[in-house]
UniProtKB/TrEMBL annotation, chain B:
It comes from the Bacteria. The lineage of its organism: Bacteria, Pseudomonadati, Pseudomonadota, Alphaproteobacteria, Hyphomicrobiales. This is Sulfur carrier protein ThiS. It comes from Ancylobacter crimeensis.
Length: 272, 65
């Protein structure tokens, strides 16, 4: 992509690395639920994303829907991050990851082991076990997890070099449910790339995640279900850039009382 | 022979997993396969025999979040 080449490696660029792969865009975009393939392609281009998530589903010999989807993604020249969405057991997730590795030709996998249907909350016990198996097998695992620090430690011990805590339940658009927990996680893992994955509804939510020092944001529904997905993708890209800039610029501390911003010294006395 | 393909009961004359894909017009398709819950790599499909009652999954790239 042209935008990617322009940004990567230029002075002042602020690249991010996942398992040794450098990217300049800090927005990872999902590919599901768009009104049409053309709108999906427009949204990916507008987002500037260099990594998009994909999945595996049953292929019908009649429609061959998967084949046309795959050629669309390949034409966009982005990296894919296959997920194990919908898997509820370690065995399902591991087998799905193995199939994804062969299909997409990448060791990357967004590991989801879902533990609860209403919240799509990760089953963190299954997640850690699956991560251990997959890391040992050479996978580069991006675990979809909660902000629980003990679970995160176990994922890192299992071999994960990226952590992806949820902002809020998948598809809920609620934003960051637990900013305190996310901030603790950032402080606890200063050198591990952290991605807020799921629950983002608005560009301001994404900016807030970046202002906390998160390295990137992964979202899908907020763009796919917007009235104008490409425009919303652009809005997210800008918000994420702004949030990142703000974090790097080291924001001021909030305080309870007012403090005059205009100097008081030399002020004329004009009162009676 | 009766097998289950992608969750649906099917009648097939295919003797191997590779033949099953050909039978379904998916010989050259980008798909991943599993037999009875275990992945079967593309290179081993011609040498993977099918038996009555087998469960086959044929998966393709799909939209995901």
């Amino acid at each position: 992509m042209d935008a990617m080449n322009m940004n990567a490696g230029t002075p002042g660029a602020d690249p991010l690395e996942f398992y040794g792969t450098q990217v300049s865009s800090r927005l990872l975009l999902g590919t599901a639920q768009y009104p049409s393939p053309a709108i999906l392609a427009d949204a990916i281009r507008a987002s500037g994303s260099q990594i998009v998530t994909v999945s595996l589903r049953r292929e019908s010999g009649v429609s061959k829907a998967g084949q046309s989807f795959w050629s669309l993604i390949k034409d966009l020249g982005v990296k894919v991050l296959p997920n194990t969405a919908g898997c509820k057991t370690v065995k399902e997730a591991v087998t799905t990851a193995q199939m994804a590795r062969e299909l997409f030709g990448t060791p990357w996998v967004k590991l989801e082991v879902i533990g609860e249907d209403d919240t799509l909350q990760p089953d963190v016990f299954g997640l850690v076990e699956a991560a251990r198996i997959l890391c040992r097998d050479g996978f580069e695992v991006f675990p979809y997890t909660t902000e629980d620090l003990v679970v995160a430690e176990k994922l890192v011990s299992a071999g994960c070099e990226v952590l992806m805590p949820w902002g809020a339940p998948i598809g809920s658009g609620r934003g960051l449910n637990n900013p305190y927990g996310l901030r603790s996680m950032r402080a606890h893992f200063p050198r591990i790339p952290l991605v807020v994955d799921a629950g983002i509804g608005l560009p301001s939510h994404a900016a807030a995640a970046m202002e906390l020092g998160y390295d990137a944001v992964l979202l899908n529904t907020a763009v796919a279900k917007a009235g104008d997905p490409a425009r919303m993708a652009r809005a997210f890209a800008r918000a994420i850039e702004a949030g990142r800039e703000a974090f790097v610029a080291d924001p001021m501390e909030a305080r309870d009382m007012a403090a005059p911003s205009t100097p008081v010294m030399g002020r004329a006395v004009l009162a009676d | 022979m009766k097998i289950v393909v992608n969750g649906e009961a099917s009648e097939t004359g295919a003797r191997t997993l590779a033949e099953l894909l050909s039978e379904r017009g998916l010989a050259d398709a980008i798909v991943a396969t599993a037999l009875n819950g275990a992945m079967v790599r593309a290179v081993t499909r011609p040498a993977t025999p099918l038996a009555a009652g087998d469960r086959v999954e044929i998966l393709a790239p799909m939209q995901g979040g």
